[in-house]
Predict the structure of NAD(P)-binding protein.
Amino acid sequence: MAANTGVTFDITPEQEASKLQFVRRQFSGAPPAVSRDDVNLEGKAAIVTGANGGIGLECCRQLLDLGVSKLIMAVRDEQKGEAARETLTAAKSSASQFIEVWKLDLASYESVVAFARRAESLQPRLDIAILNAGVNRGSFALNPETGHEEDVQTNYLSTVLLTLLLLRTFKQRSSAASPSSSGPGRIVIVSSDTAAWAAFAEKDQTPLLPSFDEEARFSTFDRYATTKLLGQLFVAELARRVPASTAVVNLANPGLCHGSALNRELGLPAAILMRVMGRTAAIGARSLVSAAAGQDARSHGQYIEDCVIRPMAPFVYAEDAQVVSQRLWKETMAELSFAGADKIIEEVSQAGRT
């Protein structure tokens, strides 16, 4: 199986993936919030991407409520980011909490690299990164810089690049940590229920990544779902290579939430569905904050839903998933070779085991 099997579940991946189970989750009540009695983030620094609205902004609020000392709001639109920062500044609980807005455009590798380089200045005090930014386009489009389909570029390739570059920063943090350190840092990649419903018709294509750049293969719902499935396959493979002592890397599903700009291109039917079935962004953010601050090292390489470790999409555990995962890993490392992806994996793997 492609996934880490060190964790047992009280539900099968197939049961977890059922539409009935999804409806139950949406209407069964809110997952518990992480409280300051449970976690105190005073003295810690956190990054949240896609932070100027929706779930990202709510993650920022909840991290500040937990006492985080430095918060980096990573945004594509800095003007909107500054407006959101002002709102948070007015409500923060302590004058010793600092909030900054940094530019990050996941449609651009150059922007991702520049952001990660800037994040190195947070040493030795980068503790949390919640990678929330994503897109769900209503039509096919290729990224003019890379030639890859835009959903795949943003939700998968650029998110993986940022994850790898931040792992290097977390490795440096781990190396500098004192014996009294509060443990490894956390990288949370936002996932989705839809990963379990992806048809993933491209899985047998060789090479795999270029197949997503063919317009004939594009389907609005399935493409977004597939990008989230690719993220699950990647994290499962990453956890095999990078130990939790370097950084705990996990996935978190906020559930279907209204008040998010993610589905703004999908039209009125999607908006109605989100209003009828959706949670508030504040409730959705709870699982992300739990994954970042409320889970221990057992969540490394795992999927958090309603603040509990749950099975990933059934395909992740399928017999043929290992072959597909290996192909995806090799192609992803090749795509990101300009940033030294393989070297980063080698460095952080060795550092975590010494």
